[in-house]
């Protein structure tokens, strides 16, 4: 699988690395901070630290905050600098099912076809960082030239697709224009190091989003074998599967479960059909070929 250039997500990667380093010291788990463990009732995972370790963790936290402050203003400026662009910071949602969806920003610009697009994160700073990274990524090849009109969306199914990356390590490709539709989860080939595998997953997400938005089909998709309606994997470890949407769990209030209705099953299969160039019986949301 191709690797992603490090520059694409510099500030996010560095911030996450500092947070993971601190979490390893505090709980032994790179994706579970001390505060997360306490909030989730897993106090037994919190390690007793001596004075030197506490001081070191505090310094890691300060560095992460210091680095973020230097990028937050530039991210917000990036999202609003062009004429007609805007960004709205939404209040936190304490009832979110996952921490990665607790905060959000709404962005409008040429890259969203002038329709509001929502980006999620654990904090509004993280959500804004994702939005700015997506804009910077698309600028080089998609920004309309002066005096030209924005080209019509050529999304292959439902709406515009964007990659999303979470602190938990999850990497997905999702569209946010048509509600109650599935998204893609991505796993990369087994690599020599975790960082190499993470970069490969990021690049896969960018490649799939570009393809679903009308771009060229990534050649590495031919390495995957589709073994079910919703799943495809390669012998080297890469895997893509369609999942979602979710519905409220009637047996456990406040939780959600995968929507297993016939309509959602068909949608998940159709999304995978698009990746593997299979014509679906129903093509109402897929533009006809010219």
What does this structure look like?
The chain has 290 residues and is α+β, with helices and mostly antiparallel strands. The protein has a domain at 152-290. The chain has helices at residues 10-27, 34-39, 51-80, 124-142, 194-212, 262-275, and strands at residues 86-89, 103-108, 117-121, 161-165, 171-175, 183-187, 225-226, 231-233, 239-243, 246-248, 256-258. The strands form three sheets. A six-stranded antiparallel sheet has the order 4-5-6-9-8-7. Strands 1-2-3 form a three-stranded antiparallel sheet. A two-stranded antiparallel sheet has the order 10-11. Strand 2 and strand 3 form a beta hairpin. It is globular.
Share of residues in helices = 25-40%
Low-confidence stretches: 1-9, 141-153, 281-290
Distance between the termini: 31 Å
By DSSP (H or I, 4+ residues per run), the number of helices equals 6
Overall mean pLDDT: 79
Shape: globular
- How many strand elements? 11
Query: Helix and strand succession?
Result: HHHEEEHEEEHEEEEEH
Class derived from helix and strand content: alpha+beta
Strand content: 15-25%
Q: State the strand order across the main sheet.
A: 4-5-6-9-8-7
Biggest sheet details: 6 strands, antiparallel
Output the radius of gyration: 20 Å
Provide a quick synopsis of the model.
With 290 residues, the chain is of the alpha+beta class. It has helices at 10-27, 34-39, 51-80, 124-142, 194-212, 262-275, and strands spanning 86-89, 103-108, 117-121, 161-165, 171-175, 183-187, 225-226, 231-233, 239-243, 246-248, 256-258.
